[in-house]
Amino acid sequence: LRRQTVWHGTDRTGNGTETNRTASWPALAPIVARQVRHSNENEVMAIGSSDRGLVHDFARNRSLGMAAEGLAALAAGPLYAWFTRAPFLVETLTWSAGIWLVLRLVEPARSDADRPSKQPSGALREVLQVLRTRPQLRAIWALWTVLSLATYIPIWLIVPHAIAAGLPLVWVGVFWAIASLFAAGGSAAGPTLVQRLGPGRSALVKLTLLALGFLGLGLGASLWTVGFYFAISLTRGLTVSVLAPMEQRMTPDAYRATMISVRSMIFRVSFFLVGPLVGLAVDAHGRAAVFLGLGVVVPLLGLRVWQRGALSEALRSETPARSATASAAE
Fold first, then answer.
1. Is the overall model pTM greater than 0.85, yes or no?
2. Contact residues for 308 (Cβ-Cβ < 8 A; gap 6+)
3. Given this model, what pLDDT does residue 18 score?
């Protein structure tokens, strides 16, 4: 189950070829959608990157999920004030909805030649072989990991930073709601940004937003500087819209779910290693100094990855002209 309530099936075109289709589940209540969105972090993104309509659908669904998360942040407090057990009852209902949706998922039909090995060791060898032969995919994963860490680490720092800056505790839920809405806007705007600027320049826009957000937070603990966090939230929404279509094109159908899980695991292991170091730095130097440091290190690291030959070639292969051509072909 994806962060959004989507399922994937297979139908056949008039000439007998198989095509993947994606359908959006009817809009659920904001709190339900928020919980379903978080029911599994593995990204089931079986959309073809050549199908721009599906890319927009995916970005829209992701945007709706983030908006629902923001609305849930506003609804949680009143629910708890009305009945202390109400949030837990809602969680139970949404998890039940998630289980039902999981049972509705279907696997596209594949020929025996396209099926991955059923043995774990064989499947691992096949995945490693894909990574060895696709340096562009490895480079995209590297940039994705850097950007994901840059947008995830502040989540653990921003609330104490905002409270120290004078944000009343009762307004934290509102703050999270606004941040989620910024992320939703970034996700919705991602495909348009890519079509107009291309993935390469879009990646530079994201690095610029991260630098702006971190450096602004590092200016000090005041309410107006806390607002720079929304630039980081906007970047979080843009991440998938910029990089997911490229990842989809470079990942074989038979290994897509496994490859995305491996990439997700790489991010989590990276955070397991980097997170404690950031915490130690905060204890030693304070949050503002760490934000300033991240505002310099993250963009430089991202630029270093972006300038690598394999990634530069991959980004150049996705131009606005090509996007327009693909859209016309559809």
1. no
2. 139, 142
3. 36
